[in-house]
């Protein structure tokens, strides 16, 4: 039995919650995964996994062994990188997740430069606005806008994204163009809500050192960034969105910026990854590349003067 391979299979089963998912993720026959775990449990003399018809979860011994495996495998990967050309040319599959807008407008258009620099890294990119469980879903790194609330993850700040307040031309013809915050009385918003936490987002403005929230009535609420702007274009109310996401609509005249002298607070963009991936050369070079990318002047993350 290859113990390191067995440990790798075991950790992936714990992270994904099933033998079949782990086998598919590692591109191994499902029978081989089952045999490896049986051999590993026999070698250790303990039961590592509890199997039910619905899920697979670690036993108490399995949970303790998982933590050791994660640490050992990370150390092994880093050690091999030090004494091989992997440090200069990292390889393997990197699983990343990001909001659809960040992927579509910022990361994917620039990816040819990254893949040319690191041709032996294969990327699996998830594009969605929902939070992902990095450990359970086997994701190496995520990009998120807003405050990083999960203190169990390593956070690497990338940029502060400018936001804009905007509405459709048709909406402004009906409701008028607000000149200040007091003029927002009588207006309405498109509300954004999180399908996971249920939190709802209205309008916020930076007034000196204070963040001032303005609550307005709504007729439509959505839980995706693209749907949020689509509802705004359809005339359902004011929205606040990162400038990069609304730039095309603003340049085409489908949306109009309002209250430019009273800006929304900037939105942090952060790369997050589990502590055990901190030593991964693939994660490290990708996050370093993201830092370089976000420092470019034409990303749209900050508006031009």
What this model shows, in words?
By secondary structure, the protein is α+β, with helices and mostly antiparallel strands. It has three domains: 3-82, Winged helix-like DNA-binding domain superfamily/Winged helix DNA-binding domain (Arc Repressor Mutant, subunit A, Orthogonal Bundle), CATH 1.10.10.10; 92-156 and 268-294, 3-Layer(aba) Sandwich (D-Maltodextrin-Binding Protein, domain 2); 163-265, 3-Layer(aba) Sandwich (D-Maltodextrin-Binding Protein, domain 2), CATH 3.40.190.10. Helix content is 40%, strand content 24%. It has ten helices and 15 strands. Strands 4-3-5-15-6 form a five-stranded mixed sheet, covered by helices on one side. Strands 13-7-14 form a three-stranded antiparallel sheet. A hairpin with a 2-residue loop joins β10 (203-207) and β11 (210-214). α1 packs across α3 (30-44), α1 crosses α4 and α2 packs across α3 (30-44).
- Give the tally of structural domains: 3
What is the CATH superfamily label of the largest domain? Periplasmic binding protein-like II
Mean pLDDT: 86
Which CATH class of the largest domain is shown? Answer: Alpha Beta
Share of helical residues: 40-55%
- Which strand order spans the largest sheet, edge to edge or round the barrel? 4-3-5-15-6
The global form is elongated
In terms of DSSP E residues, the strand content is 15-25%
Q: By helix and strand content, what is the structural category?
A: alpha+beta
What ranges have pLDDT less than 50 throughout 5 or more consecutive residues? none
Number of DSSP strand runs: 15
Tally of helical runs: 10
What is the name of the CATH topology of the largest domain? D-Maltodextrin-Binding Protein, domain 2
* Oligomeric category: single chain
The gyration radius over C-alpha positions equals: 23 Å
Distance between the first and last residues' Cα: 62 Å
Major β-sheet profile: 5 strands, mixed
Order of helices and strands: HHHEEHEHEHEEEHEEEEEHEHEEH
């Amino acid at each position: 039995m290859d113990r390191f391979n067995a440990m790798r299979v075991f950790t992936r089963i714990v992270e994904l919650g099933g033998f079949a998912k782990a086998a598919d993720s590692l591109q191994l026959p499902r029978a081989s995964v089952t045999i490896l775990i049986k051999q590993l449990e026999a070698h250790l003399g303990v039961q590592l996994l509890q199997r039910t018809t619905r899920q697979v979860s670690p036993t108490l011994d399995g949970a303790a062994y998982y933590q050791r495996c994660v640490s050992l495998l990370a150390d092994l990967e880093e050690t091999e990188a030090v004494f091989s050309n992997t440090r200069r040319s990292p390889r393997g599959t990197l699983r990343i997740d990001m909001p659809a807008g960040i992927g579509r407008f910022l990361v994917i258009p620039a990816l040819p430069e990254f893949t040319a620099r690191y041709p032996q890294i294969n990327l699996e990119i998830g594009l969605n606005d929902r939070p992902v469980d990095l450990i359970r879903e086997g994701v190496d790194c995520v990009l998120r806008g807003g405050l990083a609330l999960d203190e169990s993850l390593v956070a690497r700040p990338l940029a502060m994204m400018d936001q804009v307040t905007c509405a459709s031309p048709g909406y402004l013809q009906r409701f008028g163009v607000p000149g200040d915050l007091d003029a927002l009385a009588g207006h309405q918003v498109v509300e954004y809500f999180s399908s996971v936490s249920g939190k709802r987002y209205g309008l916020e403005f930076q007034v000196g050192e204070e963040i001032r929230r303005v609550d307005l009535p709504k007729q439509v609420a959505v839980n995706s960034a693209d749907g949020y702007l689509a509802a705004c274009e359809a005339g359902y109310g004011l929205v606040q969105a990162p400038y990069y996401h609304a730039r095309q609509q603003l340049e085409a005249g489908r949306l109009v910026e309002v209250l430019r002298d009273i800006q929304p607070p900037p939105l942090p963009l952060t790369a997050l990854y589990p502590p055990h991936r901190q030593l991964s050369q693939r994660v490290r070079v990708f996050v370093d590349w993201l830092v370089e990318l976000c420092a470019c002047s034409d990303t749209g993350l900050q508006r031009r003067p």
